[in-house]
Design brief:
alpha+beta, Butyryl-CoA Dehydrogenase, subunit A, domain 2, 3 domains, 4-stranded antiparallel β-sheet, 3-stranded mixed β-sheet, 13 helices, 7 strands, about 10% strand, globular, binds flavin-adenine dinucleotide
Length: about 425
């Protein structure tokens, strides 16, 4: 059984500022501390969630660089572990756990977001390969990714959910064109991805041809769970994969740069501000005597506490083997908090809220957070879709009437 002390002792023996990031992540994965709940040899040690939380808190407390983050570790790795063959797990999860490769989620399309199963990107079999044509959009960090978790249509003659296949696509090939999209907060986090006769070996299909919908649902479940927030706060994260340019840098230098960025308000990208930050801001701006703002601040504080306690209750229920419905409400709650944080901080800033740039209050941090506040109510499924899921899967309400589970995809009317 790993304790905070054994992890701290291991870090004392293994961390050195001279190591490259690739060497440090290799050590972390080999020790099973990168993703403790994953299998041994693949970055983990088959640990329980509670034990994993202890290990990641000990790494954060030591102030060293944490395991790789991103869509690969948070949702792709767990999906391949659930549905992939042992060979696929070795090929894809091994390098992912060591930060050698980064993955993008290639699900959404211009005509298939909430109704994801209407996707039209085609995968046509050609011997031992699939030939991919079509377009994806909203793909976070696709320009920094080595592999894509792609869902594509392999059979248009069956109902839409049945003709989808999940596969790992090599992003470094001529038929894959990635174009970054600049969001309203100025960051090019998303991309659109175009496929023109791109190739995927049949051996890269995860979970079987035509079985992609149920595999995709696993990825989405991990995405929604992550959107509710689970990582130790204060962890130091560095971009993974061959394209981020960090793997061969000494960890000492990367750590110093990351700490400097964390203390620089102009480098922060947040979707909401904590109640502590908002209260501090109210004091700095002299808003604490305004009874309406005081009331709104109090409400925000109370809602933040409810969010944190709901998460705690969900974790405790899961630990005791009685998973409750709390987890499915967390994503909605954080989306609501982000909107409240935006409205409250903008009200406190007043006219300055309309300005942007380093010269404004806190280096523009508040405005940037406001511009990123729609993220939790859209990413990983919109609030409306999340409510549909809660209604149908948690409350057992009847599904919306639809006949698209019997009509072949080819015959569906699509926008
Ligand atoms: C931060 C962020 C990161 C993302 N990262 C990725 C990524 O890495 N990879 C990826 O593939 N995608 C990604 N997405 C895309 C995301 O999954 C989609 O934006 C989302 O599923 C909504 O799809 P859409 O934008 O096409 O909206 P639409 O589906 O067109 O929806 C438009 C509006 O109609 C509403 N609506 C639609 N259907 C219903 C219904 N049945 N009932 C009630 N209301 C409905 C929606 O709630 C929404 O308000 C990301 C999005 C965000 C914001």
């Amino acid at each position: 059984m790993e304790t905070a002390q054994t992890v701290a002792a291991w870090i004392a023996d293994n961390w050195s500022t001279e190591l490259t990031l690739a060497e440090w992540w290799q050590r972390l994965a080999d020790a099973g501390y990168a993703f403790p709940t994953w299998p041994a040899g693949l970055g983990g040690m088959n640990a329980s969630t509670a034990q994993a939380r202890q290990i990641s808190s000990a790494i954060t407390a030591a102030g060293v660089i944490g395991a790789p983050i991103g869509n690969g570790p948070s949702m792709g790795g767990p999906t391949v572990l659930a549905h992939g063959t042992p060979e696929q797990q070795q090929r894809f999860v091994g390098p992912l756990a060591r930060g050698r490769e980064a993955w993008a989620q290639l699900f959404s399309e211009p005509g298939a977001g909430s109704d994801l199963a209407s996707l039209a990107t085609s995968a046509v079999r050609d011997g031992d390969e699939f030939v991919i044509n079509g377009q994806k959009v909203w793909n976070s960090f696709a320009d920094m990714s080595d592999w894509g978790m792609l869902i594509a249509r392999t059979d248009p003659d069956v109902p839409k959910h049945k003709g989808i296949t999940y596969m790992m696509i090599d992003m470094n090939q001529p038929g894959v064109e990635v174009r970054p999209l600049v969001q309203m907060n100025g960051y090019p986090e998303f991309c659109e991805v175009f496929f023109t006769d791109a190739r995927v070996p049949v051996a890269n299909v995860i979970g079987g041809i035509g079985e992609g919908w149920s595999v995709a649902k696993t990825t989405l479940a991990f995405e929604r769970a992550g959107a509710g927030g689970s990582r130790a706060s204060g962890a130091i994260n560095i971009g993974a994969g061959s394209k981020a340019g960090n793997l061969h840098q000494p960890v000492g230098e990367l750590l110093a740069k990351a700490k400097q960025e964390a203390n620089d308000p102009t480098m922060r990208t947040e979707v909401l501000l904590s109640s502590r930050t908002l209260i501090k801001m109210a004091r700095q701006l002299g808003c604490t005597t305004d009874p309406v703002l005081r009331d709104r601040l109090m409400r925000y504080y109370a809602n933040s506490q409810v969010y944190s306690w709901t998460g705690q209750r969900g974790r405790d229920n899961a630990k005791s083997g009685r998973p409750g419905p709390e987890v499915s409400t967390l994503k909605l709650q954080i989306a609501q908090l982000a909107h409240e944080s935006r409205d409250l901080s903008m009200a406190m800033l007043g006219a300055e809220a309309t300005l942007m740039g380093d010269a404004t209050f806190e280096g523009g941090r508040i405005q940037r957070a406001a511009l990123a506040s729609p993220v939790p109510s859209l990413g990983g499924g919109t609030n409306e879709i999340q409510r549909n899921i809660i209604g149908e899967q948690t409350l057992g309400l009847p599904r919306e009437p639809s006949n698209d589970n019997v009509i072949p995809f080819r015959e569906l009317r699509r926008s």
